[in-house]
Amino acid sequence: ETGVTQSPTHLIKTRGQQVTLRCSSQSGHNTVSWYQQALGQGPQFIFQYYREEENGRGNFPPRFSGLQFPNYSSELNVNALELDDSALYLCASSLAEGNSYEQYFGPGTRLTVT
Amino acid sequence: AQKITQTQPGMFVQEKEAVTLDCTYDTSDPSYGLFWYKQPSSGEMIFLIYQGSYDQQNATEGRYSLNFQKARKSANLVISASQLGDSAMYFCAMREGRGGFQKLVFGTGTRLLVSP
Question: What DSSP line would sit under chain B, residue for residue?
Answer without folding.
Answer: --EEE---SEEEEETT--EEE--EEE-S-SS-EEEEEEE-TT---EEEEEEETT-SS--EETTEEEEEETTTTEEEEEE-S--GGG-EEEEEEEEE--TT--EEEE---EEEEEE-
